[in-house]
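Still learning. Any example?
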Amino acid sequence: MRASLIQIAVDEGESVVSRRQRVAALVREQEGADLVVLPELWTTGAFAFEEFGSEAEPLEGPTYEVMAKAASEAGVWLHAGSVPERDTDGTLYNTSLVFAPSGDLAAAYRKIHRFGFDKGEAVLMGAGHEKVTVRLPETTLGLATCYDLRFPELFRGLVADGAETLVIPAGWPERRRAHWTLLAQARAVENQAFVLACGTAGTHAGVPQAGHSIVVDPWGEVLAEAGHEEQVLTVDFDPGRTATTREQFPALKDRVLGLEPPRR
């Protein structure tokens, strides 16, 4: 299976409309890939809080339309990163979109863990409540976004729902890059799953981004890692290694905590 992670640089001088078209062109160039992954909130920048409201879209908004077409033209599964979604009741969500090679929407995931503590995303956006997996011909994807990476219980839940490959778009800051790499490897090892973590380059509202998109195998080995700048990170991997790893080292069978029935 071939995956291409497009580590987009968010330039504040580039309009959202122009960036959509530029990113769509990059997606179309990945015609030989099976899966293409984009970062979190790449239309606005993950730290451009003041733009969340002004650039928010309905689920089937401009980004949906452009990315659906790009997925269809390239013939790829496309995790189109996330966009600021405005629901019909006015609530904003950090919502990821996954398209099938037909261009049809395969899944939407609203980010569960919002970053910012008492500001930014944490107060401007609503929280999602549903775990989401997507079945591809070769593997089942488990969806998470950026700050979700710090909450291992989400990934355990995704594995319980059948996830074999964990896909994590992000807008991760440079000052915590060591955590990004460490947590990506930890989520891979503890869940015996591939991790595809796609970050951004450039600077979001004055916050330098970590870049360093990364692909990790179920043993925690880094198969590929990007640098700081915008680039396409492409890697070939065997999704069957997830099942093989779980058979060779069946640690997941020894899970105890979290599996007990609720007390009455």
Notes: The chain has one domain: 2-254. The first helix runs from residue 16 to 28. The chain has a mean pLDDT of 96.
